[in-house]
Amino acid sequence: ANIRWFRSCHRRMAIYDSVTELVGHTPVVKVNKMAPEGVNLYAKLEYFNPLSSVKDRLALAIIEHGEKTGELKPGQTVVEASSGNTGIALAMVCAAKGYPFVCTMAETFSIERRRVMRGLGAKVIVTPKELKGTGMVLKAKELAEEHGWYLTRQFENEANPAYHAMTTGPEILSDFASLPLDYWVTGYGTGGTFTGAGKVIKQARPDTKIVLSEPANAALISSNIPQPADEKESHPSWEPHPIQGWTPDFIPKVAQEGVDLKLFDEIVPVSGEEAISVSKELASKEGIFTGISGGATAAAALKICEKAPKGSVVLCMIPDTGERYLSSPLFADVGIEMSEEELKIAMSTPSAQLLS
Q: Which stretches within the chain are classed as H helix?
């Protein structure tokens, strides 16, 4: 309790030299209303990072790694392919450290992500949806080669899981030092959280079951089909899904490392509909405002809770904020005009009525 108090006060009271110093030390919150009785479900809220996603960790890790190795030169342009959160995180870190940043992103991802990156000073190169994730990755590689830019290689860069092994994993172990931790549930995009934090958790608490989740209609790892050697070729088990940030159309090298190490004990598939439903429920019942990927991870955790013994402790990762999804299916049924119920409330008193 004293450790948590100190960390909390330190975060709120201290003055920092750079926004990058705010990355990490995200809080764990109990999910009070959605878990079955007798099972304790917790969520690690990665949207408490400065640019509101777990990818802030990855961005800081790979930029600082490039600086330390000398691969990233002062003032050099940084380029990366991203579904949005990594791009936003890199735009933040590059802005703080003085590097121009260019992101390649498939046109299917939410438009607010483009606007946030451009607001942070980045350039966004939109690629055709037909080329999927592999298309935006190839575009980033081409641009790096053509212009001499620094390609961060988030899907294969070892600095990605290494940073999670140094931060995310130890944070979880510290927060649950006086509690059991029966299950840790995570999805994967690059696989950095799964592989990096998973190694540390498995080594320190071998009895903790690691549960990996992926889209039900894009179950790449569950298929047991290897990733094709041709980098232009999509994995045969991949289909389009609405869980942005999860499971590109290939198995990233970083994720494959965790699979090869047999870090996970179980894989739980989650449909897009389940992910969206649980995300909405987290917001309306718990005040946890997360995106579709957060809803997907929580949906997988709830499935674990349903079969877990009484007294079990389950922790799930919440990767980002719901504000990244305002133009996505998550908010498709949320209007901007007043509903009939809201209009009725407005008319219940005489003043300030919007009549037009």
A: 2-13, 55-69, 85-97, 111-119, 132-147, 159-166, 168-175, 192, 198-204, 253-260, 272-281, 292-307, 340-346
User: Does pTM top 0.85 for this prediction?
Assistant: yes
Marked catalytic residue, from 44, 52, 53, 55: 55
What is the residue whose two structure tokens read 């005040």?
287
Distances in Å between the Cα of 131 and the Cα atoms of 123, 211, 225 are 20, 30, 21
Q: Is 253 a catalytic residue?
A: no
202 is catalytic: no
Which residue among the candidates 52, 110, 293, 312 is catalytic per the annotation?
293
d(CA 40, CA 49): 24
- For 270-324, the pLDDT digits (tens) are 999 999 999 999 999 999 999 999 999 999 999 999 999 999 999 999 999 999 9
356 pLDDT band, cuts 50/70/90, is low
